[in-house]
Amino acid sequence: MSEPSASGHATAESAPAYGLIAEFQTPNALVKAARAAREKGYRKLDAYTPFPIEELTDALHLHHNRLPLLVLLGGLTGGALGYLLQYFVTVIYYPINVGGRPLHSWPEYFVITFECTILFAGLTTVLGLLGLCGLPMPYHPVFNAKRFALASRDRFFLCIESEDPLFERQKTAQFLESLDAKEVSEVAH
Amino acid sequence: MTAQTSVDFRVSDGLRSDLGRWRTRALIVGVIGMLAMAAGLLVFHQPFQFYQSYLWAFLFVLGLAVGPLAWLMLQYLTGGAWGVVIRRPAEAAARTLPLVLVLFLPIIIGIPNLYPWAHPAVVAADRVLTHQAPYLNYRFFLLRALVYFFGWMFLSYYFNRWSLVEDRDGPAKAHGKMSFLAGPGVIFWSLSVTFMSIDWVLSLHSQWFSTMFGLLFMVGQGLTSMAFLIALLVALQARAPMSQVLTKRHFHDLGKLMFALTMVWAYFSYSQFLIIWTGNLPEEIPWYLSRTNGGWGYIAMGLVLFHFALPFSLLLSRDLKRNAKLLRNVAIFVLFMRMVDLFWQVTPYFYGSAFHLSWMDIAAPAGLIGIWLAYFFIQLEKRPLMPLHEPNLEEALNHGRE
């Protein structure tokens, strides 16, 4: 996101585009194209679809990200906090003898420890997801693509970003066209 | 790679020789175990030990036969590719019930060696047992056992019969028949397993009771049979026809079910423990005192760590559930822990907090499981390994393919 500046017009032709986007009519064509692009060596690519497509996750190799680790850490933090909360309340602040049970009655702590684990893990999932996706994001160049509104209706898009080391405007456009794309267009920044 | 419906689902020659070899091995182990058990009873004259070991080992084998029946009925209710691929093994396991009924006979003979309510003098001296006598007596106990076995064997007969009709004439009539009885069948299963657990295990002691007990046995059977079916499918996958059927997605789905049941088992076990530990009542707490002290305490801790924590952590991984060999190893480990759990539940009824492991606790499961497996492989061989006209067959074959 560069600021619009006086030099913007002068360099418009050579300014790097955000990427090239290809439009597909069926989810299968998109999955095939995504796989082909991965095989070709492209790494900076993303797909946009009106509904989740499970195979796409495999095709784009999106399984491994940092979210599970964040959720694990969030859960462990929550569990530790829940346990310590009960420990401080029942052992240190209000050491009350209930029916002769030990003050540190750890078997009873599990319910709240578990609930806090789930609560924190759940919150970390939501917030971590937003954070890793870079949301909220008031501007994204992909919306500059002409027919992109259709991505929430009945069309499937694959975008190869210009940051990809293999990205070359001509070659990449030709490659995308060879994948049965209905239309290939450039996405401006 | 599109799966073809023209795949021949009959047991291939290669698999037939595999099954034959597995059957022989199982039979050898089973016969040795049974001979050792017979020696324990007749040569070493240890009838009490014989029946005590036999009881928990029998409960494990019962889970192998009745649990798959529950999965079979459940998959008619829910649908899904996982259900189609376990249909034939589950049907074969249910067909072993006549053998399981025969294996139950020693427990009937051993009632006086196992249950306090079988002795009139003991009953007369114990007010609780006197109250329980209208329910816990020879005749009614046998009648209930008969009802359980009759129900299970009827369901097994019904689902196997209509499955055969479906193979022959198509699903038009047969599939509706099976779906129709699946719901009532699952209800019968849950009630029968609940009452069975009360009759055969809970009545080993007159005072202690728990409303969680039936649920624990239901989830135990579900987990035992799911782990067994997974291990079996991985073994079958090496040869045609299952090598052309099973994909990572199938194992992923079945692994998720095993994962869920591991958690449900932990949830039920902990619920029962928490309520009794908190209540700390003199008629309830001894059950846990004897099972968490002395040697049993190590077993209890082992159950927490290896029946729950370890399989739970491993099965969290998506990659592991999609790796058939690793999933099989976890499944076999879960099966072992199921036996430890039953051993831990049953044995302290007789010995209290003193840890007790007899050589018959190894001979009994070896004998019973060996014999059962040999019979199971005979049943498995008899029919094609996939239902030929299952309405969702195509979908199940394409599960995880493009």
Features:
heterodimer; A: 189 residues; alpha+beta; Alpha-Beta Plaits; 2 domains; four-stranded antiparallel β-sheet; disordered N terminus; B: 402 residues; mainly alpha; 18 helices
Structure notes:
The complex is a heterodimer of chains A (189) and B (402). Chain A is an alpha+beta fold and 189 residues long. Chain A folds into two domains: 17-63 and 139-188, Alpha-Beta Plaits, CATH 3.30.70; 67-133, no CATH class. Chain A is 47% helix and 11% strand. Chain A has six helices and four strands, in the order αβαβαααβαβ. In chain A, strands 2-3-1-4 form a four-stranded antiparallel β-sheet, covered by helices on one side. In chain A, helix 4 (67-93) runs antiparallel to helix 5. Residues 1-12 of chain A have low confidence and may be disordered. Helix content of chain B is 78%, strand content 0%. Chain B is built from 18 helices and no strands. The N and C termini of chain B lie close together (6 Å). By secondary structure, chain B is mainly α. Chain B has one domain (13-398). The interface between A and B is small, with 11 and 8 residues.
- Class inferred from helices and paired strands of chain A: alpha+beta
Question: Terminal Cα separation of chain B, in Å?
Answer: 6 Å
Number of strands of chain B: 0
The total domain count of chain A is 2
Mean pLDDT of chain B: 93
CATH topology of the largest domain in chain A: Alpha-Beta Plaits
In short:
Chain A is an alpha+beta fold. Chain A has helices at 7-10, 27-40, 54-59, 67-93, 106-133, 169-177, and strands at residues 19-24, 45-48, 156-161, 183-187. In chain B, helix 2 runs antiparallel to helix 3, helix 2 runs parallel beside helix 8 and helix 13 runs antiparallel to helix 15 (324-346).
Task: Give me the secondary-structure topology.
The complex is a heterodimer of chains A (189) and B (402).
Chain A: H1 7-10, E1 19-24, H2 27-40, E2 45-48, H3 54-59, H4 67-93, H5 106-133, E3 156-161, H6 169-177, E4 183-187
Antiparallel strand pairs in A: 1-3, 1-4, 2-3
Helix pairs in contact in A: 4-5
Chain B: H1 13-42, H2 47-78, H3 81-94, H4 97-109, H5 111-114, H6 120-125, H7 127-132, H8 138-169, H9 171-200, H10 213-236, H11 248-279, H12 285-292, H13 294-315, H14 318-322, H15 324-346, H16 348-351, H17 360-381, H18 393-397
Helix pairs in contact in B: 1-17, 2-3, 2-4, 2-8, 2-9, 2-10, 2-15, 2-17, 3-17, 4-8, 8-9, 9-10, 10-11, 10-15, 11-13, 13-15
